[in-house]
Fold each of these.
Amino acid sequence: MAKSQKKRDIPAGAVAVATNRVARRDYDILDELECGIVLKGSEVKSLRESKVQLADTYAIFFQNELWFVGLNISSYSHSSAAFAHQTDRRRKLLARRSQLDEWSSRADREGLAMIPLALYFKDGRAKLHLALARGKKQHDRRQEIAKRDADREAARAIARARRG
């Protein structure tokens, strides 16, 4: 995905690589977590060139560790085939054990998904803004759009009344 214009999911001082724009539209975000990613050298260089796609990615727990699945990091433009990385391998995520235990039990108990919101560099290290989320139903999205339209119309009416 392209770089986001909204800096909502990226902390101050961080350099955005990619954002998941549809995450907040399709999911109710319940909790958020910043975690590191275990990467190879050519993957880091590709990330610096923003050659990454966050669409259809998610995190899973496997043997008490958090893994990121579906992240496609394209090959680095100046690397040879001998030093190239696999573009779609699973990558380990780094977070505190207490946070991982809490998220693991909560995801199993409530049937929640772990989806990425943004990928960025913070102090020279690649970080992932991960969210614990519940999928929205179609009618939930329609209600959200109707509420937003009603709020917008009310704001316009107030503005017209102030003008006279």
Amino acid sequence: MEVIVEKQQQGTTAYLKGRLDTLAAQEVEGPMEGLAEAASGTVILDCTEMSYISSSGLRLFLMLRKAAAEKGGKIVLRGISNDIRSVFMMTGFLNLFEIE
């Protein structure tokens, strides 16, 4: 799993590439905590190249959403695949995030 973070004037974009499984979730927890610190604005999670998400990955997304809610920011998911969209629908996460 690779996370590339770009900061712009209008917010922060994180490009997630690969499988966000349990092992990868542990590896990317640091960069995700950095995103939580920037969550007072808009954080875009570009999932165009993310092929899978586990429950551990969902936990990281929920942690980001909570940080954004506490700081008055928002988390936007961009480019989620149909498979990942299905996981979000089944878990009720689809209603928690703005989807582009």
Amino acid sequence: MENLEKKTPLSDLMETTMLKIREMVDSNSIIGEPITTPDGVTVIPVSRISFGFGTGGSDYGKTTDKFGGGGGAGVRIDPVSFLIIKDGVTRVVPVALPAIGAIDRILDMVPEVVDRVESFAARKKEEKGMF
């Protein structure tokens, strides 16, 4: 088995490909930069990222100074949802098509129901003087 510590043109090619992918895809690609509107609403985009790469090469001929190789990479960024923050309340607004099944509809409603229950409980505490 050959020494893995040895630098080869193929390992250089793979390192360069991975470096370029790291430059294209970072955490700011998944959770975008917050956008604040003049009325105090903050919108944060959320995306799904898929990427892949391939690299290959070979020494050819009787000498090792001849090398042929290539690499390629692809990145796909799909918007998933937006986080909307207003008056301390955060809501998730999906970009996808509406839910089809009953379970999907229920899961989509959970954040709104939780917000309403918290609001109701806070109002009841204020009415009873229980801060």
Amino acid sequence: MNRLLTLCLLLVMAGCDCGKGRVVGASNGAIQVNLIGVEPEGVTLAVAVIGPSSTQEKSDLIATLPFALRVEQLMPATYVVRASSVNSAGGVLQTVEQPGVMVSTGGVTEVTIDLSKRQVVVPAETCDGLDNDEDGEVDEAIDLPVCVICQGGMMIGASDDARCGAIPCNGLDHVDVHGDLSPGGEATCVANRHGPMMTARCAGPQACAAPNGPFCPEGTDTLLATKRVCESMINCESGRPVIDRVANGTPCGSLKVCDNGACVVVDAGVMIDAGLPEVDAGVVDRFGCADGTREGFQSLTSYPAIAGCSGAWTIPGVTAASAPGCGRASGNTGTNREGVGCSSADLCSAGWHLCRGKDEVAMKANNSCADAVPAGAAASSLFFAVVQNSVNNTTCDSSTSNNDVFGCGNLGIQLQAAKNCGPLNRALASTQAGSCGFNEAEPNLGPWQCVGGAMSHLAEGAIVTKSGCPNSSCQYDGNAVGNSDKGGVLCCRD
């Protein structure tokens, strides 16, 4: 009310009424009490206007509400207005006082009182271009719907409203691969994240924008991982990319393969540098393994003429291996992983053969089986067989006998120097029929099988297959084992 009084002082010279703008006289003013509430027993409204030098009183029977009673002929000044309700016996029921009521020259100042609540009623400010609450300000502090503002006495839609809060946009987040995921390419895994809307949050009057809408801010890219040549990347779309080095011998371009993380050229010149006859690299398969991946002697530059090839076969034998039976479709990454209808020779590429015993392995593997098992391979996980003859007692010889299965790896009986098998370091050898003689190689732990007649323990090399764990039905060390697991054969370039 003090702001009203200040404004009234400024308007006195104009002869204006600070309440409703009515002129009542040349020099005197008036106070009008508007009654909007009274207890049922109240029948009379009594008003006392207390001024600096005098008090004027007036009363009247209360008619239909709202009811007005005016006290006139008041000198311009500031007054205290006391309003009371009186019952029929003359008793005062309620009283409300309002100090600081200014009377201006020729004006009427209105005071609205609710005696039932014992309070002066301040009119609510509305969006109409007027000073409804008579505080000297227009259209201020109005309780408006969300995304609505009062402008020029009219309610219009707003473009932004802090009451909408932070509108989420994370439903637009996505993670994408950019680039070439092939072994010969490079790629990145990039997350695009969206922060919340903090501006332009109104979709229209009384409506905040919906989450994840078209007016969300641009997303910010974050690099999660980078895949380089001779690396693989999986699980990018989940936001948890995994980068790993691809196997040695994986093609990474024309006449190029991956070798310990580098994409290297493999052609006839490389074979010449390795002391091998020059051949047409387009005719002779450079990987050695028919499925294009090596599991033993993985470095193609270090071992261009020998490869450890994992896979399965059902046609018996390594020492008396038949010709390929399934079009070289076998191998642990081949199209015939169960090895059905395949021989051990199907694991080798065209231009390669099962290594012919210890002497050929010594020449093409630098006289060592050390790199037949890659670093980090699990124990008892790989055995690569070769065509090595033996008569008895797991001893390598130059006979045509087929006793035992010899090779390189970390699975099988470990060969001692006295067995005359160097550089071969492992063998599968049994003393009873129908067995390869090494528990961790055979079902239910592995797929190697030496099934035959009563004398089969003297001919494992001629009857051995890798078919004892079809559809990964075996288990070793808590992991499923299939026919193409636990190794295969060593292949040597022709």
